[in-house]
Amino acid sequence: MSKFRKSRESAHWMRGIGVLGVLSLLAGCERAQPDAAEHDTPSDVAPSGADGKLVLQWNTIASEVALAADAKYQDPFVHLRALTMMHLAMHDAANGVLQKYDRFALAKTDGGADPSVAAAAAAHGVLRALYPNQRGLLDKRLSESITHLPLGSANFRGLALGREAAAAVLAQREADRSDATESYTPRSEPGNYRFVPPLELVYRPAWRNVEPFALETGDQFRSQPPPRLDSAEYAAAYEEVRSYGRATDSTRSEEQTLYADWWYELSEIGWNRITRVTWEKQSQQDLWFTARLFALVNVGMMDAYIAGWDSKVHYDFWRPYTAIREGANDQNDATAEEPEWQPYCVTPPVQDYPSTHSALGAAAASILYATYGRDVPFTMESTSTKPAGKPRSLASFEQAAQENADSRVACGIHFRFATQAGLEMGERVGDRVLDTFLTPTRSPAG
């Protein structure tokens, strides 16, 4: 039988039984799998091309699954945690076949496993555990990911290794305190956060206590205190957002209004898209490089959220909406009260300082720049663009991070000092991730 015919018939067989059948066989017959070195032909055991596009595919699959589970995407922390764990499992699975970088949780090694199958199975395993109601969709996506590959023990071993990578990551994060809850009662003193319509709540205040991935603790990079209400710095920032970020009669240019909307979408949605778009321009696109890249970017954003929530809850600083409407009560003669003031954008239900939108952008940008070794211009659309479908071009990651931060002042939902503190925090988080997490494995001679 020719190699081509054998591969084609193997792929047809796997499609026929479906991924559930494959997983069932794997679960029930692990000890019956043939030893790769003794029983497989070279075409059976040769690893797949290990193309990094597999990582991009599962990045978008994770978003598809999250939206299927939560159509309005009302709990973004839950989804980013799942996405981060998925990418770490994919990274560990690939490095469990051939180790190029330090792993996060997986201890097992199997050089005879197919790395692409292992990575896909790892992604599937994490998401299937975290989104149990989406198992049908996930099984279908796994089947689509692996059934083009020729069947052999390398594939079965890849499935087994991927399943172990998923289990290791899930076990490592099982007690990360992400399911903790905490009540919040607003205080009435000038400078303290008050609920901002239309959302009478603070989103997940307990998130500040979630176990970080790369940081030692959530308060490791706690921001310096915001400016005093009676300071000239506060008055300048107050006047800037009052005029620049207002809903009507703003000092914003047409361009600034455009990017206020364009950057409004959740950071993890936008910066994962930026990572996908800029990856297409890289010469290095193998599975190991790509799996590590997406793991680092999402770890950076997860830890930036945790660090940002620590500072937000610690300082409990009010939003421009409240501050400008109560400007007569802040002990600063230079702030003009405007009781009917409205921001251009809806204010997220959490404290002002620091801006985690700015922090996530800075963390992702610093990781992308350091990983690529250079800035990469890109053009893409955003889910929050007005009008919809209008793309935007950026020349560099730094420009993107700076504009992303400025958009929050243009939206009227952050003071300038909050975005500056967010940028500083994000850079520190990004540097920490790069210096300590999933670092290149040293050769025995080095």
Q: Can you walk me through this structure?
A:
The chain has 446 residues and is an all-alpha fold. It has two domains: 7-172, Vanadium-containing Chloroperoxidase, domain 1 (Up-down Bundle); 209-436, Orthogonal Bundle (Vanadium-containing Chloroperoxidase, domain 2), CATH 1.10.606. The chain is built from 16 helices and two strands. Strands 1-2 form a two-stranded antiparallel ribbon. The longest helix has 29 residues, at 287-315. The protein is elongated and about 75 Å long. The two termini are 46 Å apart.
Provide a quick synopsis of the model.
By secondary structure, the protein is mainly α. Helix content is 54%, strand content 1%. It folds into two domains: 7-172, Vanadium-containing Chloroperoxidase, domain 1, CATH 1.20.144; 209-436, Vanadium-containing Chloroperoxidase, domain 2 (Orthogonal Bundle).
